[in-house]
Amino acid sequence: MKNEFYSRGTSIVARDLIGKYIVRDDEVSLIGRIVEVEAYGGSDDPASHAARGRTRRNEVMFNKPGTAYVYFIYGNHYCLNVVAHEGSSAGAVLIRALEPISGIEQMKKYRNIPDDLHLTSGPGRLTKAMNINKIFNGIDLLRDKTLSIQTTDESSVKIGTSKRIGIRKGIDREWRFFAIDSRFVSRR
User: Fold this and answer.
1) How far is CA 100 from each of CA 21, 79, 165, 168, rounded to the nearest angstrom?
2) β-bridge pairing 29-40 and 176-179
3) Which of 35, 81, 135, 136 is deepest in the core (most CB within 10 A)?
4) How far apart are CA 175 and CA 42, in angstroms?
5) pLDDT: which is higher, 48 or 70
6) Vertex 13, ends 139 and 73: CA angle to 5°?
7) How many C-beta neighbours within 10 Å does residue 150 have?
8) Using one digit for the tens of pLDDT, what is the confidence trace for 123-161?
């Protein structure tokens, strides 16, 4: 994928990420198909980490599009985002759920669970299953060899939209996108 893909409106990029693959080169190749995301804008989005401007925690959201933004939340898990915005604003797309494709047995070991349905259905679950943590914060997903987002040859995916989950501000925006037919979406 090219930088231009991520250099568009955050909600446009979010929708277009559905069906793409996250590839994590680990002990084995871990691959998941993106089936659920949420878009978060800049200062115009009260639910965004960037709503109050640049800080140490959110500075990656202001970086060039195609950068990974990984942060620790609730004191127990990481969230993977990809920076996506037009011009000099901020924005990122939270990857909420994946359909496990390859390396599933290794993912199960990382999560310490036997089934694959709940393996990557949720932002904290998928980062644990894919062995993604803070060391990936700020990496260039277009050039890094250990973590990337790749296109697929699949036909178009039926995409649903809804309000974002678990926020208190900006709840009117339907910036959650998901593959309608996927059983791996975290919540309906």
Assistant:
1) 10, 17, 22, 30
2) antiparallel
3) 35
4) 13
5) 70
6) 55
7) 11
8) 999 999 999 999 999 999 999 999 999 988 766 889 999
* Number of alpha helices (DSSP H) and beta strands (DSSP E) in the chain: 4, 8
Cβ(117)–Cβ(184) under 8 Å? yes
Residue 188 pLDDT exceeds 60: no
Bridge-partner residues for 35, per DSSP? none
- Rounded CA-CA distance 93/176 in Å is 10
Could you give the domains of the chain?
Answer: 3-179 (3.10.300.10)
- Radius of gyration (Cα) for the chain, nearest Å? 15
Q: Is the pLDDT of residue 80 over 60?
A: yes
